[in-house]
Amino acid sequence: MNYIKLRKNNLCVENILVQKLAKKYQTPFYCYSLSQLKYNFNTLSNAFKTVKPIICFSVKSNANISLLRELKKIGAGADVVSIGELLKAIKAGIKPKKIVFSGIGKTEEEIRLAIKKRVLLINVESENEVDLINKISKEFSRTISIGIRLNPNVTGKTHRKISTGGKDEKFGLSYKDFINLCKKVKKMKNLNLQGISVHIGSQITSVSPFKKVLSVINEIIDKTKIDFNFIDLGGGMGISYSKKEKQINLKQYAKLVNKFIKNKNSRIIFEPGRFIIGNAAILISKIIYIKKSNNKNFVILDAGMNDLMRPALYNAYHQIIPLKKINKIFRGKIEFVGPVCESSDKFLTQKRFSKIKEGDYVAIANVGAYGMSLSSNYNTRPTIAEIMITGSKHKIIKKRQSLANLVNN
């Protein structure tokens, strides 16, 4: 994190002490650095500047409309997987010709809206979906641009619940089925096959799986003799959640893509989410109680798994940082947990931590991707506020849900 760091033992987001924010806003809340968001987008864009890709931000990773508007300003498109995400992207000002509609279960309503809005590509994942799009496109008397998602049978060596490229996963079409569907689409007058799409999973920190994917795509192109206008390589680029975990080497990945695209008349599309927004946010929480047990101390926070699901869902690691670090150490095993009535409502176990007490505040790091977007009202708890920092300024970009609204609906 370049813009979220400790300065003289005080955690800062850009030019603001987080301690001041914690006293101003009701905890828990999400806090974003706009500078970090822009830095991440520009880092990705610059790494691949030779091929000038269309970078379609993965809206499922974070659908806050203020953030989408900021991304639009710096050149991002959108990758959407639902009618709600499509409408949000358009409301944020992202042009339909920079939107790709992905997902395996698009409804007729969603397909109709995508056609009506004239999105860049509808990435299809089954023969039945192709038939439905063709039927609807005839009603509109339009020729619709589609991409076909390939299941390359390549895994990203990531958590099994965020791996999408293996042969037994629900996503995309096998090599053989992909080729057969290409032949069928060619005969359909209302469909224009413009793209090949792949996405093998999230939080991939090695370039090796992407190299394998590019090789499979080359085989497909040689086999089908199709000069695809767009080659959608998905997202999946990983970030560092801990000191042990390396961020993907974009320079190496860019070299592979540059070599791959050299003799092709195709435009590269990327669909990153986590790489752009992941480390641009922290979750601020207050320590309610410190409860001693036989072999550990439970640090009970006011943030729960309903606010941040990733640790419960994926056993994901998120560093926890005191807003004010002191040199004294809290000795003994401590476990940071939430107030939700579930045993899985826990965030992190540590053997050593800065001295803390009830009423202190902590930040859970790297929560920008799949933090707020996976949040819920479980245990009838309100969804929390989102704050954005720009330099020395801060503003609410999503209000905390009121109890009255939650209870009465």
CATH architecture heading of the largest domain? Alpha-Beta Barrel
The helix-and-strand class reads: alpha/beta
According to CATH, what is the class of the largest domain?
Alpha Beta
The value of Rg in angstroms is 23 Å
**Low-confidence spans:** 159-165
Characterize the main sheet.
Answer: 9 strands, mixed
* Fourth-tier CATH superfamily name of the largest domain: Alanine racemase
Output the number of helix runs: 12
- How many domains? The number is 2
DSSP helix fraction: 25-40%
Termini distance? 39 Å
CATH topology of the largest domain: TIM Barrel
Q: Strand fraction band?
A: 25-35%
What is the residue-averaged pLDDT?
93
Care to count the β-strands? 20
Structural shape = elongated
